[in-house]
């Protein structure tokens, strides 16, 4: 498992530029090596920070048709609901790049609108298992879980990542690839999320954290390895890198 690496940038804008460069570099690498690139998105501010990818030089140089896009977690609501991570990503990023619709793997539309979190999680896991059969996603030889190329993650002020929250049992789930939560401390309460072993089976994990509210949790993780915070458990197969702005690093 990769050791945590940290890079602090002066501003959010530099974090955004570095994220775009990192993502574009890995996109080129994996497309050259295997003809496709699997990317896992999260919600929150992360999509805003991907804005540099839809500008030159990246918009024209990335082979978007070879991308396959997933979500590390999703809110169980209609696709058009303002709470939807799918809607956030479509509006802010995916609608601006030519990734084929069939390569965008969203939460099941009908079950999400119905609000059935457990069923949504099972269907998303089925989707991943089918893509393993189709040789889109490999199984990690080291872990036995699906192996994504790159995950772009964020952390909440409480130290949560994906929809793995402090003092909730989902962090301990090891059988399932995708689990659900119906009592998220952050609204909306119903969500689905990759489990920790799946998150940590990714080849590259980039955790991007900006702003002051996260600074205390950043310090707890970086200085004290406080494992009561889910984000402290983040690892990766090749690289586990944390990009912080000055504000997020202010208590280090």
UniProtKB/TrEMBL annotation:
EC number: 3.1.1.31
Similarity remark: Belongs to the glucosamine/galactosamine-6-phosphate isomerase family. 6-phosphogluconolactonase subfamily.
Enzyme class: hydrolase
Listed pathway(s): Carbohydrate degradation; pentose phosphate pathway
Protein name per the record: Probable 6-phosphogluconolactonase
Pfam families associated with the record: Glucosamine_iso (PF01182)
Residues of the Glucosamine/galactosamine-6-phosphate isomerase domain: 11-239
Swiss-Prot/TrEMBL catalytic activity: 6-phospho-D-glucono-1,5-lactone + H2O = 6-phospho-D-gluconate + H(+)
InterPro entries, sorted: 6-phosphogluconolactonase_DevB (IPR005900), 6PGL (IPR039104), Glc/Gal-6P_isomerase (IPR006148), NagB/RpiA_transferase-like (IPR037171)
């Amino acid at each position: 498992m990769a050791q945590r690496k940290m890079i602090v940038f002066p501003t959010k804008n530099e974090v955004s530029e570095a994220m775009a460069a990192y993502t574009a570099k890995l996109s080129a690498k994996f497309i050259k090596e295997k003809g496709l690139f699997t990317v896992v998105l999260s919600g929150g501010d992360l999509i805003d920070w991907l804005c540099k990818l839809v500008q030159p030089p990246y918009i024209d140089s990335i082979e978007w048709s070879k991308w396959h896009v997933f979500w590390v977690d999703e809110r169980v609501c209609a696709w058009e609901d303002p709470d939807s991570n799918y809607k956030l990503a479509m509006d802010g990023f995916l609608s601006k790049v030519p990734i084929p619709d069939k390569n965008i793997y969203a939460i099941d539309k009908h079950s999400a609108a119905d609000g059935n979190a457990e069923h949504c999680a099972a269907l998303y896991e089925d989707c991943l298992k089918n893509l393993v059969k189709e040789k889109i996603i490999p199984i990690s030889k080291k872990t036995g879980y699906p192996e994504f190329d790159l995950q772009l993650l964020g952390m909440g002020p409480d130290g949560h990542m994906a929809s793995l929250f402090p003092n909730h049992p989902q962090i301990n789930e090891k059988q399932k690839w995708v689990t659900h939560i119906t009592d998220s401390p952050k609204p909306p309460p119903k969500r689905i999320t990759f489990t920790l072993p799946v998150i940590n089976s990714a080849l590259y994990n980039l955790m991007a954290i900006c702003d002051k509210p996260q600074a205390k949790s950043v310090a707890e993780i970086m200085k004290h390895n406080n494992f009561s915070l889910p984000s402290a458990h983040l690892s990766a197969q090749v690289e586990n890198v944390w990009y912080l702005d000055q504000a997020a690093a202010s208590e280090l």
